[in-house]
Each structure stands twice: as C-alpha cells, then as structure tokens.
Amino acid sequence: SSFVSDDSYYLPITKDYNYLTVRRSQNGRVLYVKIDNPPINLITKSLLIDLIKFSQWAQEDEESTVLVLESSNPDFFIAHFDVEALLEIDSESKTGPANSLTVFDELCERFQKMPKVTISVIRGRVGGGGSEIAMSCDLRFAELESATMNQMEVPIGIIPGGGGTQRLPNLIGYSRAIELIVGGLDLDAQTGAEWGYFNRSLPSAELTSFVNKFVHRVSSFDPDAVRSGKRALQLTLPDFTEGLIEENNLFNERNHSENGRRLMQRFLKLGGQTAEQELRIEAFSLEVANETVSEK
Predict the structure, then answer these.
(1) Using only C-alpha atoms, what is the Rg of the chain?
(2) Confidence (pTM)
(3) CB neighbours of 11 closer than 8 A, spacing ≥ 6?
(4) How far apart, in whole angstroms, are the C-alpha atoms of residue 34 and residue 8?
(5) Residue 241, number of CB atoms within 10 A of its CB
(6) How confident is the model at residue 60 (pLDDT cuts 50, 70, 90)?
(7) Confidence class of residue 296 from pLDDT cuts 50, 70 and 90?
(8) Distance (Å, whole) CA 245 – CA 252
(9) How far apart are CA 48 and CA 150, in angstroms?
(10) Does the pLDDT at position 5 exceed 90?
(11) Which among 122, 192, 196, 272 has most CB atoms closer than 10 A?
(12) Cα 49 to Cα 218: distance, rounded to the nearest angstrom
C-alpha cells in the first residue's frame, strides 16, 4: 500500500543515506521519502544525520513542490529519540543555558518552512521526536485503524525537547496538549483528526488513493503559486524560536537530573525501544514510572 506510484523513479542520492529511500515523480515535482530503521524507526544519531542531510538537500531542490514522508514499517511511522543517546549527553558539555536552536529544532524548522508542501503519512505509532517531526510538516494524513500518537517523555522523567511543547498546543490547543504531554497519553487516529493533530484519518483502503490524488493535484499546479501560498500561510504561525530555546533548557535540566537519568535507564532496562513495549507505550511508560516509585 505504498504511495509511491508507478510513475516515480529512484534518485541516486538514496545511496548517500543509510535509512532513507528517495524517489521523484516523473513530472519532477513530488519527492517521496521512505524511512526504514528497524525495528521501530527509532531516531538514532545515524537516522538523525540522514534526516538532516536529506532536509538540507530537499530545501534547495528547485523542481519539487511536494514532499511526502512515510515509513516502510506499518507499525511505526517514527518513534522517539534514542534514549541511549540521550543518556550519553554529557552535562559538562553544556556551558550555561542554550541561546540558539538545536540541530533537531533546525531540522524541524526546515520541514516547516521549506518552499514545498511537506506531508507526513502516518501508519502505526508516532511518538516523541517522531511526532515533533510530523508536527513540523504542513500536513499529517493518518491510517484510521492504526495511527496513534504519544509524547512519552514526562512518564520517563524528561519533557519533549524537539518542539513538542510548542507545536502541539498550536495544533490542538493548550488544554488538550497538556493532557497528552503531562499525561503521556495515546492519541488515537479518530480523536487526533477531531482535535486537529491529524488533517484526516482515513481507512487504510482509502488513505493511499486520497494522498495520491491530493499529491497529483497539488503537483499539477503552478509551482510559484503553490510556494507563494505556503509562504503567505506561514505568516500566520507563531515564531517558535524563543519557546524552543526555553524548552531545550528545561529539557536539558531534566535530562541531566538524577531522577531523569534513573527513569530513562529503567525505561531501557524494562524493554523500552523494543517493538513489544513501544506498541503499548502508554501502559509501559506508567510501569516505568511506578517501578521507580516502588524502588524508593
């Protein structure tokens, strides 16, 4: 059920990436990207490097007006950032509070602002940093039967650190965002569409044809009109910069705190980052939190 229709071809730049396959439509105007980092499309350092390199290339690609991101794994769109990598971040490496965007924030900003329509097609779970990437795209189309979002950071002692606290309220409102982020709760496809996280949640059988039709339609329009339309609409969005920097400072405090580190270690020890536990992340993250409470 891939979106990549028969009229697209592989781009040689695919060989520059470990976890991404890139195709272009015959008319040149659509880029299709498939993410494949088994078992859960965890944002490891090497996947992050792929995404950064690709987004820098795509931003400058003058032919395309539409970019479609999807996963080759039906159970996971993109999971969260690699918790092992977070534990490796040395608190000594930070000199004082951050005053500029992180490379991850810059990656998300490129997906938000690049002069083409960016679309995440979400089947299965999207969480943590994966959700932050999806939220930075212009559109999120979901598979009704399977798509589920979860910002799982607070239960494991940290907070979203890649824009989650800034972009989610902008999409669904403050009160709903705090319910999901502080509660570490799942957002199902239907509620997600009602609340405005997903543009639409469609049955699997309809999702592919809907996205294909939409993509073909937009890519048939005058490229300058599409780009100008997006650019004008971007002016209605808040400037997230200050909020992202402060979010990052709060994230770093939690990430280097004794409790934060103990909970993240516990998360890994109990099976975090395995498909089995990640598929039940709402319940699993509560077990991680409660296990730590009972240890005290």
Answers:
(1) 19
(2) 0.96
(3) 22, 23, 24
(4) 13
(5) 13
(6) very high
(7) low
(8) 11
(9) 20
(10) no
(11) 122
(12) 29
Instruction: Let me know: does 163 contact 108? Beta carbons within 8 Å.
Output: yes
pLDDT tens for 85-110 read 999 987 766 656 779 999 999 999 99
Q: What tokens were used for 13?
A: 């730049």
pLDDT tens digits for range 127-178: 999 999 999 999 999 999 999 999 999 999 999 999 999 999 999 999 999 9
Residue for token pair 């769109």? 77
Angle between helices 164-172 and 241-256 (to 10 degrees): 130
How large is the average pLDDT for residues 189-208?
A: 97
Task: Give the largest CA-CA distance in the chain.
Answer: 63
83 neighbors 268 (Cβ within 8 angstroms): yes
Query: Using H for helix, E for strand and C for coil, what is the string for the chain?
Result: CCCCCCCEEECHHHHHCCCEEEEEECCCCEEEEEECCCCCCCECHHHHHHHHHHHHHHHHCCCCCEEEEEECCCCEEECCECHHHHHHCCHHHCCCCCCCCCHHHHHHHHHHHCCCEEEEEECCEEEHHHHHHHHHCCEEEEECCCCEEECCCHHHCCCCCCCHHHHHHHHHCHHHHHHHHHHCCCEEHHHHHHHCCCCEEECHHHHHHHHHHHHHHHHCCCHHHHHHHHHHHHCCCCCCHHHHHHHHHHHHHHHHCHHHHHHHHHHHHCCCCCHHHHCCHHHHHHHHHHHHHHHC
